[in-house]
Amino acid sequence: MSFYEMILDNISHGIYVLDDVGNYLFVNSAYLQLLNMPKSTLLGYNVYEFLRTKQINISIADIVYREKRRVVMFQDVYDTQKYGRKTFRLLVESVPVFNNEGKVQNIISTVRTLDAMEVLYSEASDNKTITQLTPLETKMGDQDAIIAASPSMRDVLSVATIVATVDSAILISGESGTGKEVIAHYIHQQSPRKDHKMVIINCASLPASLLEAELFGYEKGAFTGALPGGKKGLIEEANKSSLFLDEVNSLPLDLQGKLLRAIESKTIQRVGSTKTIEVDFRLIAATNENLANLVKEKRFRADLYYRLDVIPILLPPLRDRKEDIIPLANHFLYYFCKKHNKSKAFTQNTLSSMMRYDWPGNVRHLKNFVERSVVVSIGEEIEISDVEHVIGGRSIRSEQTNYNRLNTGNARPSESRFFHLLEDGVSLDEYMEQCEKDYLAFALKKYTNTYKTAEALGTTQSTIMRRKKKYSL
User: Fold this and answer.
1) Quick one: which of 211, 212, 285, 203 has its CA closest to 251?
2) Under 8 Å between Cβ of 219 and 176
3) In 10 A of CB 164, how many CB atoms?
4) Which of 172, 114, 115 has the alpha carbon at shortest distance from 146?
5) Which of 25-39, 178-192, 402-416 comes out lowest in average pLDDT?
6) Which residues are bridge partners to 244 per DSSP?
7) Exposure check for the chain: N or C terminus, fewer CB within 10 A?
8) Are 240 and 193 in contact (CB under 8 A)?
């Protein structure tokens, strides 16, 4: 018995490991005791035999193989050890282990009886000491930390850590603002390709007429306006690194076929060239729409969808992981206080109001709100009784509150707000930037794309894109 097998064999709950077709590779003593079976017998079994012999009606392992995800399920087992009790209930957790091609290579399962869990809970409750663990946080720069206090985000981070070491294609799905690019950066930083800069392409930010040349590059004279020496494409720039296609759902249909060929062959041809160039890249894509639905609507190629969706990662919206709101808010508070040289703290009322709000713009929405709070709020405490009311268009402190604090009896509300902004040392540039950011964020939300926003604001699309990038909108 190896050292690791000895460790697993001494764990009190059951553990078993399967190969890629359901054969048992390892079982520990606790699992054998639960099933009351000899080790030699169980190691000769395949999980599908339990289905064929109707010993079980649903195979947890079969779900993991098919859906490539962690599965937690109750399982009722016939009790062969205790008279007068037909079955007892187990809690089974099965986790996939992927190979370099993104296929499930192994399944690791842990098995616990509910009785045993109750005993452990009772023992822990009797212990007067409670240890505290701060939320899991991965540092990739002050802004880009991943904070995972919620179980759903811990699962996401666990899967991201596992798949980072292989080269399989990854499709990150989630609403806008959930942090898809941050997860992509994390995967790249944990991968063997981390020494090369990840190349990011926002498929929605480039006009269709320019997208092909940006992706694949071009030779000199390929079209009017082409650079005299030609240009290397972004896919070619990603050689030896990771290629992140953000908003891949916006990719035009005519380019989807070319991208599929590049992914499958790991070769590209520049526009205007017949020469094939080999490119070694790891693909990570992100979408804020359901690609399966787009396939049904004939807006996305099915073959490209299945090529991208080798390892799916779904980021939950912030409203579904409330445990992350306060840790994220405090993290952004620390970052923006440091950036703007401020000293601020949220009151308990503010934190409670944050927890009640649904944050339709997700983490990005929360981040922008915290920055606004830091820049515009008066004094060291950020006091907000109704976050939704404030985000709906009011200043961080109500005008009436400022008016009362002035206690002049004559000052108009707007003047009182400016008075306290001056007291807090908010410069004209800071105030103008915040106004521009808020106005742009509102317009982008209303018009949904940068072209319509530029038209409404009387400026160019490239200006909107620069401002959008500047304010991380």
Assistant:
1) 203
2) no
3) 20
4) 172
5) 402-416
6) 200, 284
7) N
8) yes
Sheet order of strands, 281-287 included: 199-202, 241-246, 281-287, 170-173, 311-314
* pLDDT band of 103, cuts 50, 70, 90: confident
Could you give the CA distance from residue 378 to residue 185 in angstroms, rounded to a whole number?
36
Q: At 192, which amino acid appears? A: P
- Please give the helix or strand (H or E) that residue 330 lies within, else none: helix 325-340
Residue 463, both tokens:
């200006």
Distance in angstroms (rounded) separating the CA atoms of residues 92 and 300: 37
Residue 91 CA to residue 395 CA, distance in Å, equals 50
Taking CA atoms, 282 is separated from 131, 184, 262, 313, 392, in Å, by 40, 11, 12, 16, 41
Q: Which long-range contacts (CB under 8 A, 24 or more apart) does 297-303 make?
A: 299/253, 300/249, 300/253, 300/256, 301/253, 301/256, 301/257, 301/260, 303/260
User: In angstroms, what CA-CA distances link 50 with 38, 65, 200, 218, 288?
Assistant: 16, 16, 47, 58, 40
d(CA 422, CA 415): 11
Domains of the chain: 3-126 (3.30.450.20), 151-315 (3.40.50.300), 319-470 (1.10.8.60)
Q: How far apart are CA 216 and CA 269, in angstroms?
A: 7
136 in helix, strand or coil?
strand
**pLDDT tens, position by position, 162-198:** 999 999 999 999 999 999 999 999 999 999 999 999 9
Read off the pTM. Answer: 0.57
Q: Where are the beta strands (DSSP E) in 10-115?
A: 14-18, 24-27, 71-78, 87-98, 104-113
C-alpha dihedral, 395 to 400 to 404 to 409, nearest 10°? 120
| Structure token pair of residue 257 | 């076929």
